[in-house]
Amino acid sequence: AETKKIAVIAGDGIGPEVVAEAEKIIKRTEEVFGYSFTTEHALFGGIAIDEKGTPLPEETLSVCKSADAVLLGAVGGPKWDNNSKELRPETGLLGIRKELGLFSNLRPAVIFDCLKDASTLKPEVLEGTDLMVVRELTGGIYFGEKFRREGAGGEEAVDTCVYNTAEIERIVHQAFEIAQKRRKKLASVDKANVLETSRLWRETVNRIAPEYPDVELEHVLVDNCAMQLLRRPSSFDVIVTENMFGDILSDEAAMLTGSIGMLASASMGEGAFGLYEPVHGSAPDIAGQGLANPIATILSVALMYRLTFGYEDAADAIERAVAEVLDAGHRTADIAVDKSKALSTTEMGDLIAAAIR
Ligand code: NAD
Ligand code: IPM
Ligand code: MN
After folding, report:
1. Which of 38, 70, 215, 306 satisfies CB 3.0 to 4.6 Å to 275 for a cystine?
2. Do 107 and 265 contact (CB within 8 A), yes or no?
3. What percent of the chain lies above the pLDDT cut of 70?
């Protein structure tokens, strides 16, 4: 196969730790399946602020643009939390998503049978849970105008939430298409009882829906959705929602799987190019201790193989290897019942790599 280029931006905290394990998996799939990759590393996030004075250096952006796909760890940490907006790691993350046109963030939450005891929910509630959050990623309150001003009650802060029809249409079409390839159920989540952006969202979804008559559509208000996710998670198939609701609901969905350390994500635009990252952050509380679960990042590589490269065999092999290692009882601390027997980040990565064949 032809050589593909992966830009690797490890970031901060546990980012470099989990990305190192994902790179092991990439190497292993080269050996086993004969695929060929070059990886190019670039600075991103807090470490880029420290070394280059900006969270998203031009050079990093061009490394990403010249690659076929991007593998990202996580950014952020207390060291940069009091910085101005321009000098925050998170601003770099929003910038890279916007610059690369990645408006669609896919966050699958699948319950591995043997992890039912790792979730805080009852096993019988989790039975059969297999859902996908499709989160709009480059619009809404994250990207609207923000400012401070003097008001009657002292200083005021303003965040504006803006969505236009075209932005809603493209993500909703993607969500319907994904639903068609799954169990053909789509829940569109909004706050149309209060927000104007949500009313435009719902109108747009309803206008598009007749193009997908085979997909069963329901509208769910976001507060109800947060509750239903815990009450009847297995009844959801695809959930499509705006940026901030998707951020919050996908962390909630993570706990269905047992740990946020399990949840992978793909950020896509119109084509095959994608950015792949775990849903979790830089976890400053456990960084540098070898405690991080690398599975979310490893499963993000499987998404990369499937969605960008079409390497279904290697994607399947990664997912099978993760299931096999978990089935054999191996656990990192976040998903372990007996924490004293927990594996380190690298031990887990090694076991999964060895199980790929
Ligand atoms: P977090 O996801 O980093 O951590 C939340 C909790 O989950 C912590 O207790 C952490 O130890 C645990 N956790 C996270 N990933 C884990 C893993 N792989 N294995 C085991 N445990 C794991 O969220 P937070 O604490 O709210 O944020 C920390 C920093 O990360 C902040 O600076 C935030 O802005 C940033 N962040 C970055 C991203 C990203 O880069 N995509 C995502 C979320 C948060
Ligand atoms: C995520 C993170 C980011 C987001 C932050 C760090 C900007 O929470 O990727 O889910 O809110 O999108
Ligand atoms: Mn988040």
Report:
1. 70
2. yes
3. 100
Ligand nearest to the CA of 335: 1
What is the interface pTM, i.e. ipTM, of the complex?
0.98
90 CA: nearest ligand 2 atom: 7
Q: Is 200 helix (H, G, I), strand (E, B) or coil?
A: helix
pLDDT at 175 over 80: yes
Q: Which two tokens stand for residue 179?
A: 């639903």
**Axis crossing angle, helix 243-254 with helix 222-231, rounded to the nearest 10:** 10
Is position 51 annotated in a ligand binding site? no
Atom 8, ligand 2: residue with shortest CA distance: 247
Task: Tell me phi and psi for residue 27, to 5 degrees.
Answer: -60, -45
Token output for 73: 């760890």
Query: Binding residue per annotation — 111?
Result: no
Long-range contacts, 27-32 (Cβ 8 Å, 24+): 27/353, 28/353, 28/354, 28/356, 29/305, 29/311, 29/314, 29/317, 29/318, 29/356, 32/314, 32/317, 32/356, 32/357
Q: How confident is the model at residue 117 (pLDDT cuts 50, 70, 90)?
A: confident
Fold designation for 1-103+259-357 = Isopropylmalate Dehydrogenase (3.40.718)
Residue nearest to atom 9 of ligand 2 (CA): 279
Could you confirm whether domain 120-256 is CATH 3.40.718.10? Answer: yes
pLDDT, one tens digit per residue, over 298-355 is 999 999 999 999 999 999 999 999 999 999 999 999 999 889 999 999 999 999 999 9
Give me the residue spans of the domains in the chain.
Answer: 1-103+259-357, 120-256
293: phi then psi, degrees, rounded to nearest 5:
-80, 120
**What pLDDT is attached to residue 118?**
85
286 CB neighbour count, 10 Å cutoff: 18
3-state secondary structure of 185: strand
Cα end-to-end distance, the chain, whole Å = 18
262 phi/psi in degrees, rounded to 5:
-105, -15
- SS3 of 77-104: the string is CHHHCCCCHHHCHHHHHHHHHHHCCCCE
